[in-house]
Amino acid sequence: MAKFVVAGKANCPYYAKAELLADYLQTNLPNFRVHKITQHPDKWEQWLHDICETNGWEHRQCPIIWRELLDRGGKGQLLGGLNDFLEYAQQYYGITSMMLTEEMLDIAEENLQAHLEIVKEDEEIKSLIKPIQIWITSASVPICYHLIPLLANGEVFGMTTEISIHLLDTEQFKEILCGIVMEAEDMAFPLLRSISEHTKTDQAFIDADIIIVLDDVLLNLEVQSLENYIREVSDICQVYAPLIEKNAKSEVKVISSGKTFANLKATMLRTYGPSIRPENIIAISTSWESAAKAMLARKLNMNTAGVKDVIVWGNITGSNYIDLSHAKLYGYDCAIRGPPNFQRPLLNMIYDSEWMDSELLSAQSTLRSRVSRCTGMLPAHAVATALRYWYHGSPSEEIISLGVLSEGQFCIPEGIVFSMPVRFRNGNWEVMTELEINETTQKVLGRLSHELVQVRVS
């Protein structure tokens, strides 16, 4: 089978003559196939240069015609221009074109109008499919590298929702950003409309639907004081918040993550960006929640997915409290069994009182060390999980820990971002104020609240 490619400018009369001859050959010859590529006159020269450079051809005229080697693979075999095609058709098939110049010009004009209409139609269709605009700050960090596939595979926003990702970092990390962009493009995610790198802060967050703040400071209290680190975080937020107000969409969702000052970043963004909806600024607690569930599952020798309703209270990347008073076990191998939705209170299943009274506290210290060392998969999964719940709702009746702006729930002071139990539904989250907490937990919340207030004052 012979397959030919005929390419040319939409308004070129020679291209018009070549494509009509190719159509005639395809209609009348059983083993002749043609594929046509029409280019806008303004884009033709660059397109021709690129296709010739890719294939190692020398051709400077319109049209360009080549044969695809279907039976052998590899690059196509250049035939040439219109005259070469006419000669080939005459020699091999005894067919030629007698089209007059006037007819060629008329068809060229029709080709141009048809091409412009197709381009316009494609642009209108694309405008109807508006991708979610996602901006990621400090995008050279490993969390971002692991996060991109989770956002682009369709599981977070849905299998019909396209996204565009914008990676923001400083000029010194431009090469890393370009590498991430290239790798993401090579993976050819069907739902990833575009991915781009940015190093100019003043252009940040344009039309953003979601902003994921991954900026961190390298804590070393032997080098400088905690107050200086807090000031660094405040300076970052003072730059970002006005840009979010100016450039992002009014309903933008802002997510604070990272290894340091997650709560404080969320609080400062709200402080310096008063027009950002407070319920749209959150800090991610899910890393701690997942790590705590894994620790408990190892103790109970069960699947981590069966541990539910572990609550993380307080300062996500600082002093926090793992609350097991509402935790439940599903699918636990014990004397009493039931259907998949059958659950048992976790505290009733741990009979090791010594571990509960002493080792759990030291285990939480170990947990803090484990989470702080996580730089990739776990925090990326935590961000993706929170976004999926935000857009599609969390599992019914399941408790999710999230850093949100306090409105006085559980006697926590207003105005600080505090990790507490929430549920997601209908595109929003709500604090589960119906949960009862014991006196011990209330005292711990008081201490954690005081620490966060002091950090904000600093």
Automatic annotation (TrEMBL):
One GO biological process this protein is involved in is: tricarboxylic acid cycle
User: What are the residue boundaries of the Lactate/malate dehydrogenase C-terminal domain, all occurrences included?
Assistant: 380-452
The answer to whether the entry has keyword NAD is yes
**Oxidoreductase listed as a keyword:** yes
Which keywords are on file for this protein?
NAD, Oxidoreductase, Tricarboxylic acid cycle
**Which Gene Ontology molecular-function terms are recorded?**
malate dehydrogenase activity; oxidoreductase activity, acting on the CH-OH group of donors, NAD or NADP as acceptor
User: What family is it from?
Assistant: Belongs to the LDH/MDH superfamily. MDH type 2 family.
Alphabetical list of PANTHER family matching this protein:
MALATE DEHYDROGENASE
Q: What's the protein name?
A: Putative malate dehydrogenase 1B
* Origin organism lineage: Eukaryota, Metazoa, Chordata, Craniata, Vertebrata
